[in-house]
Design a protein that fits this description.
Chain lengths: ~120, ~110
């Protein structure tokens, strides 16, 4: 089975802190994604990457950056955390490059609270 | 207008009932369609893809209506274990995946 692992299940940070969320997948997938999920808003795409060192903005990239130095690892960075970034963060990966019928495999999520 | 819209529910149905959810999408060029299931405090998992001719997987049937731009999910003989949130997902191409906000289903004993 594909495994997508997120480094923390729960995280509490203070406003202004720099926050790193790590995600690792073990199936050599090309595509990796970061979403946030909020009640009433569903999943919204922050950034995605389809290759090492490549990244593309999703729908809500403001306040976030990403890093993909190795194929299996995709990091989400909050440069200066704010309270409106309190959310569930979900990492996902998929096996095909730009395919339209690809299946997403999600990590178990990180519930981030910014105080 | 949202790319994907779903009735949030909740749908509360007795065991054994048949229940159907619809999901509408706004981009007529959308290329592929999926239903994901998300249990409380868990990650979404693919339930089934939705094919143009409709498809069935056990008690679950998915259908696509391109003319009216909606997809549907029918669950027959509901089980307690079907209680979850069902997410409609639409791919408009080139990694543009849009998620609905989900429809919450509770199956009651």
């Amino acid at each position: 089975d594909v495994k997508v692992t997120q480094s923390s299940r729960y995280l509490v940070k203070r406003t202004g802190e720099k926050v790193f969320l790590e995600c690792v997948q073990d199936m050599d997938h090309e595509n990796m994604f970061w979403y946030r999920q909020d009640p009433g808003l569903g999943l919204r795409l922050i950034y995605f990457s389809y290759d090492v060192k490549m990244k593309e903005k999703g729908d809500i990239p403001e306040g976030y950056s990403v890093s993909r130095e190795k194929k299996e690892r995709f990091s989400l960075i909050l440069e200066s955390a704010s309270t409106n970034q309190t959310s569930m963060y979900l990492c996902a990966s998929s096996p095909r490059l730009r395919a339209t019928n690809e299946k997403l495999f999600f990590g178990s999520g990180t519930q981030l609270s910014v105080l | 207008r949202k790319e994907v819209e779903q009735d949030p529910g909740p749908f509360n149905v007795p065991e054994g009932a048949t229940v159907a959810f619809n999901c509408t999408y706004s981009n007529s060029a959308s290329q592929s369609f999926f239903w994901y299931r998300q249990d409380c405090r868990k990650e979404p998992k693919l339930l089934m893809s939705v094919y143009s001719s409709g498809n069935e997987d056990g008690r679950f049937t998915a259908q696509l209506n391109r003319a009216s731009q909606y997809i549907s999910l029918l669950i027959r003989d509901s089980k307690l274990s079907d209680s979850a949130t069902y997410l409609c997902v639409v791919n408009t191409g080139a990694n543009n995946l849009f998620f609905g906000t989900g429809t919450r289903l509770t199956v009651i004993p």
